[in-house]
Amino acid sequence: MQLPPPAAAAAPAPAASAKFVEIPATAATLDEVRRGGFVLYLRHGSTDNSRADLFPGLDLADCSTQRVLTDGGRKMASRVGEAMHKARLPVTEIRVSPLCRTRETAALAFPGRTAEVDANLMYTANLTSAQKAPVLAKTRELLATPVTAGSNRVIVAHGPNLMDLIGYFPKEGTLVIFRPQGARSGGAFQYVGSVAPGAWPELLR
User: Fold this and answer.
1) Which helix (H) or strand (E) holds 73?
2) Contacts of 12 by beta carbon, 8 Å cutoff, 6+ apart
3) Is 173 left (phi over 0), alpha (psi -120 to 50) or beta?
4) Would you say residue 5 has pLDDT above 50?
5) What is the DSSP letter of 111?
């Protein structure tokens, strides 16, 4: 396994303030996302927690060394992707963590689409602070970089990564919506809302 190289300086830590408050997305939120310009961070589907990632010893090419999706997690990924398609959310760019559970989630949620595997979206829970730094920096960059109107950027990655970055640990299968603030903002982005995997039917009524 090749871990991200240590960065010279750690990514900025979230401010130590009030506990993160999850905001359920609404139909109006989806109307905005339909127009594009957002970053959609999808945590992978449900996994088999009895199978932890082998660490050390994790092999990115060998799913048997990793925690993987359950059958329910595969169905969840497919359902979320179908819901996003039904909601007419345009997606033109898909970035994905190199682990099997995220790559499989992307393949099931967006069948026939090409996803760019990015080593700097690696699961952070097993990394040192120095190893986390480039992952958090890359995630911040992807969340802050503007997206062309009429399209959205999708990131398929992990809960601990957002916890490290902004203090938010989304449940498996949750879609987290961000509005990029642009390069001049110093890497800022706005959290807009979240769609839990079971919330789609009500939103799409």
Assistant:
1) helix 71-86
2) 140, 187
3) left
4) no
5) T
For the chain, the average pLDDT equals: 91
Residue type at 55 in one-letter notation = F
Q: Do 25 and 193 contact (CB within 8 A), yes or no?
A: yes
Mean pLDDT of 111-129: 96
Task: Find the mean pLDDT for residues 80-100.
Answer: 98
Q: What are phi and psi of 93, to 5 degrees?
A: -145, 130
What's the pLDDT at 51?
87
Residue type, 91: V
Spatial separation of the C-alpha atoms in residues 174 and 108, rounded to whole Å: 15
Measured distance CA(202)–CA(8) in Å, rounded: 46
How many Å apart are CA 197 and CA 205, to the nearest integer?
Answer: 15
Q: Which residue has the tokens 């169905």?
A: 75
